[in-house]
């Protein structure tokens, strides 16, 4: 069992957070915790506010009210440079990857740790970049151009770059989107290992409810800009709640091997 909710320290804490966009969409009264050594999953229908909550929690979207802290320190009062040393964000990939080698790209993750006007890469920086390529399973791509890699391979490299920041918290927005089953499994297993072995706090947006059930320790179900249910997957992935939020009929079974919920839609 992955759930150790009572023994892990809270790294990111949101209490009654409100935030939104000029378009008028907002999320309301958001309270959640992202804990050391756990994977926190944010789930819900398209347009429900999942990414908005993730961006707010990472400090990349200003909040209008509420409390937002990392390690007990107010995130809105921190400089971007200091915040970048403590958390990293892997966004959904852009259509045109950078025309640079994988190692050069991963070294960009060391920028928050540079001082003054020194932007050259030290042996220490290169060593960390290569270590993160190794951890992410992408060391074999180090000398290739990022543009030459497949979508799944690039996603592993994006995670390596984020890890090069040496963050306490790793945020990911739909990290398995548009990937084949093999790469989905590889990335989710990597994140599971980072949480368990490196004690990194992982927070991510997921569409795949079965992946959320299998890999996440804690889930937050979002609907119309509000959290409607939270807790362990077995307590959140309940047909009665999911049917109201997703507007479709749902079956739920217990996986005979893991005991985790298995979710299926039905007519």
What's the topology here?
Layout (H helix, E strand, L loop, with lengths): L9 E11 L5 E10 L3 E5 L6 H9 L6 E6 L2 E2 L5 H5 L2 E4 L11 H6 L15 H13 L15 H14 L4 E5 L7 H18 L2 E5 L3 H7 L2 E6 L2 E6 L1 H4 L2 H8 L2 E6 L6 E6 L1
Parallel strand pairs: 3-8, 3-9, 6-7, 7-8
Antiparallel strand pairs: 1-2, 1-4, 4-5, 9-10, 11-12
Helix pairs in contact: 4-5
Folded structure, characterized:
- The protein is an alpha/beta fold and 267 residues long.
- It has one domain (10-235): P-loop containing nucleotide triphosphate hydrolases (Rossmann fold, 3-Layer(aba) Sandwich).
- It contains 9 helices and 12 strands.
- The strands form 3 sheets. It has a 6-stranded mixed β-sheet with strand order 6-7-8-3-9-10, sandwiched between helices. Strands 2-1-4-5 form a 4-stranded antiparallel β-sheet, covered by helices on one side. The protein has a two-stranded antiparallel ribbon with strand order 11-12.
- A hairpin with a 2-residue loop joins strand 9 (218-223) and strand 10 (226-231).
- Helix 4 (123-135) packs across helix 5.
- The two termini are 32 Å apart.
- The model is unreliable at 1-6 (pLDDT under 50).
């Amino acid at each position: 069992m992955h759930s150790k909710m009572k023994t892990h320290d809270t790294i990111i804490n949101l209490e009654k957070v409100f935030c939104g966009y000029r378009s008028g969409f907002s999320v309301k009264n958001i309270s959640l915790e992202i804990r050391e050594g756990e994977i926190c999953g944010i789930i819900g229908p398209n347009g429900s506010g999942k990414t908005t909550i993730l961006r707010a929690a990472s400090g990349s979207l200003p909040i209008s009210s509420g409390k937002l802290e990392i390690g007990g320190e107010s995130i809105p009062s921190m400089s971007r440079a200091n915040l970048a040393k403590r958390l990293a964000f892997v966004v959904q990939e852009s259509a045109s990857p950078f025309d640079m080698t994988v190692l050069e790209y991963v070294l960009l993750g060391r920028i928050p740790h540079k001082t003054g006007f020194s932007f050259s890469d030290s042996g220490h920086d290169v060593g960390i970049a290569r270590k993160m390529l190794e951890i992410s399973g992408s060391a074999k791509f180090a000398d290739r151009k990022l543009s030459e890699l497949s979508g799944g391979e690039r996603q592993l490299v994006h995670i390596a770059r984020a890890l090069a920041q040496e963050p306490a918290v790793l945020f990911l927005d739909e990290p398995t989107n548009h990937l084949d089953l093999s790469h989905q499994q590889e990335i989710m297993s990597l994140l599971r290992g980072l949480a368990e072995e490196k004690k990194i706090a992982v927070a991510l947006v997921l569409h795949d409810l079965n992946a959320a059930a299998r890999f996440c320790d804690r889930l937050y179900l979002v609907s119309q800009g509000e959290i409607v249910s939270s807790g362990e997957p077995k307590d959140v992935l309940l047909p009665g709640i999911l049917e109201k939020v997703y507007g479709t009929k749902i079956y739920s079974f217990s996986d005979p091997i893991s005991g985790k919920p298995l979710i299926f839609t039905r007519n």
